[in-house]
């Protein structure tokens, strides 16, 4: 950029010499020599500009790549609580639209912020040198332009901030529509979804129109200043030539430098526009980069979980971390290693929240949770979660093959180990029926498998991990009762030493458990074996009777 500017500033000075010493004096040898120098300067300017463009493109693309990498890398360390503070659609927008805006601004800035100020300074020096008092024109024009551009920038920022928030809403509508397209069509809600989309789309349009209306003032502002400067310089220059205080060549060079100065100011105004658009994106990206997980892994934490014993001691928990809105209240639970525990309760009673604390997916608000006799906060986070395998309520499969999805549980799992895990989860029967068996492709989200098949694959993936604690969060709800029973029997035979925690809606899924906990409104209302609860707990008895009515009547 420095080389390009130097050549562009040198060319008008050389032209002044050509006019005054060559054209005016009809000195052909001098004109020939200066022509070669001018052509060389122009070619060097072109070369430097080309190299500057290439390096700027590479730098901006690399900058965007690093931004996306750092955002995604930071997201991997987020706790569930930290992730909950951002919407999925917002994070996607920040990694795509916002990064693209910043990349474009960065590419312009690293070129123009070097080129334009240098051009402005060098051209002003040359105007002062050749034009003397004519330089005073810019002493009026430049402050006027700076003040005008600053006002535009101040007015336009809020509009673009709102526009990018509207992008989040639009992406959220699109994401929900596409992931729930079957539900949308089943309920014939296409028109309603279209209205939601149009509303978000119109918000983006309206915000951008407001912002661009303000930005539109930059063009007349720049053009008005440019024409005013040219008129003033033309009038003052004519007087200077008539009074013999300036040569024709000097006036021509001053006019050329004036165009360079105004061009530099125009470039600077473009930077202002780009910064106005990208500033909101910058702040949104920085917000993610500056957000640190509230659940950092313990430095030098314990890396070995002794066994699968679990202890909850007076545990309170609230998602906002405040004790005025507790989801779990004074939970006391003691589970021996290798036991099978059942958890029953109404929706919203805190069952899923309870088991999430075992793998330290959330931090407790009060009290302590221990696994293997040690508080979960003292473990290395990765080591703890390697030994506490969870099959979550929402079964998530990823694009790739069945084998690749299963190896999430164990990176180096052999085909035989995968077959064994799938046999326990009763997934082997439908996998072996596929043409490519374990090499069969899984579509995004497992869309090409039924709900029950996805659940069994997720159970197999968790079993393959061979953990100390295995948590089933209502993970057999989509399979039939016979398959559910077969999975439980296979687990008892295959993994008697693994502590198994089963959250279920069906009593039959937990009736053989060593202990069953009944949860109500975030508390443990009762606990005992199947027979003990059947004899004393009204809720359990009613639930069992309603679910086994057909069997009793038969």
Radius of gyration: 36 Å
Kindly report the average pLDDT value.
80
- Strand-pairing-aware structural class: alpha/beta
Largest sheet: number of strands, sense, barrel closure: 6 strands, mixed
- The CATH superfamily of the largest domain is identified as ABC transporter type 1, transmembrane domain
Report the total helices. Answer: 19
CATH structural architecture of the largest domain? Up-down Bundle
Q: Percent of residues in beta strands? A: 5-15%
Give the count of structural domains.
2
Q: What is the CATH topology descriptor of the largest domain?
A: ABC transporter transmembrane region fold
Strand order, largest beta sheet:
6-9-10-3-11-12
Number of strands: 12
- Which CATH class of the largest domain is shown? Mainly Alpha
Helical content, roughly? 55-70%
Question: Are there runs of 5+ residues with pLDDT below 50, and where?
Answer: none
Shape category? elongated
Span of the ends, CA to CA: 89 Å
């Amino acid at each position: 950029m420095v080389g390009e500017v130097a050549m562009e500033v040198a060319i008008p000075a050389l032209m002044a010499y050509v006019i005054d010493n060559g054209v005016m004096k009809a000195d052909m040898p001098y004109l020939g020599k200066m022509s070669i120098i001018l052509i060389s300067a122009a070619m060097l300017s072109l070369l430097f500009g080309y190299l500057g463009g290439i390096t700027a493109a590479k730098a901006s693309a690399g900058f965007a790549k690093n931004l996306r990498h750092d955002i995604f890398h930071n997201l991997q360390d987020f706790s569930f609580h930290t992730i909950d503070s951002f919407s999925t659609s917002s994070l996607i927008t920040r990694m795509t639209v916002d990064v693209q805006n910043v990349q474009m601004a960065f590419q312009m800035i690293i070129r123009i912020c070097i080129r334009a100020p240098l051009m402005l300074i060098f051209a002003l020096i040359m105007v002062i040198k050749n034009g003397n008092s004519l330089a005073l024109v810019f002493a009026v024009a430049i402050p006027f332009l700076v003040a005008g551009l600053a006002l535009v920038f101040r007015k336009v920022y809020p509009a673009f901030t709102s526009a990018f928030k509207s992008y989040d809403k639009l992406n959220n509508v699109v994401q929900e529509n596409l992931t729930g397209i079957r539900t949308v069509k089943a309920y014939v809600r296409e028109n309603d979804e279209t209205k939601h989309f149009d509303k978000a789309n119109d918000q983006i349009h309206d915000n951008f129109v407001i912002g661009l209306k303000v930005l539109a003032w930059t063009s007349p502002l720049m053009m008005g200043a440019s024409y005013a400067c040219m008129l003033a310089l033309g009038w003052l220059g004519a007087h200077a030539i008539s009074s013999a205080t300036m040569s024709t060549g000097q006036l021509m060079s001053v006019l050329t430098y004036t165009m360079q100065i105004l061009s530099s100011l125009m470039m600077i105004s473009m930077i202002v526009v780009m910064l106005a658009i990208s500033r909101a994106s910058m702040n949104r990206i920085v917000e993610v980069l500056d957000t640190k997980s509230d659940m950092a892994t313990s430095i030098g934490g314990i890396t070995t979980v002794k066994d699968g014993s679990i202890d909850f001691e007076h545990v309170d928990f609230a998602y906002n971390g405040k004790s005025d809105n507790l989801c779990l209240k004074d939970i006391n639970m003691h589970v021996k290693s290798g036991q099978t525990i059942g958890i029953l309760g109404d929706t919203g009673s805190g069952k899923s929240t309870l088991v999430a604390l075992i793998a330290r997916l959330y931090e407790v608000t009060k009290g302590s949770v221990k696994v293997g006799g040690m508080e979960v906060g003292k473990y290395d986070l990765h080591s703890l979660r390697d030994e506490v395998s969870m099959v979550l309520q929402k079964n998530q499969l990823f694009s790739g093959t069945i084998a690749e999805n299963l190896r999430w549980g164990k990176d180096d799992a052999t085909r035989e180990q995968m077959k064994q895990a799938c046999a326990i989860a009763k997934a082997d029967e439908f996998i072996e029926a596929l043409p490519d068996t374990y090499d069969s492709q899984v579509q995004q989200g497992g869309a090409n498998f039924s709900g029950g098949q996805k659940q069994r694959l997720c159970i197999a993936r968790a079993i393959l991990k061979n953990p100390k604690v295995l948590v089933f969060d209502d993970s057999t709800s989509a399979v039939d009762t016979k398959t559910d029973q077969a999975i439980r029997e296979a687990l008892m035979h295959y993994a008697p030493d693994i502590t198994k925690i089963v959250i279920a809606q069906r009593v039959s899924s937990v009736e053989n458990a060593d202990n069953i906990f009944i949860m109500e409104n975030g508390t443990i209302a009762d606990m005992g074996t199947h027979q003990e609860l059947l004899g004393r707990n009204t809720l359990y008895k009613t639930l069992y009777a309603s679910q086994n009515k057909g069997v009793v009547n038969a």
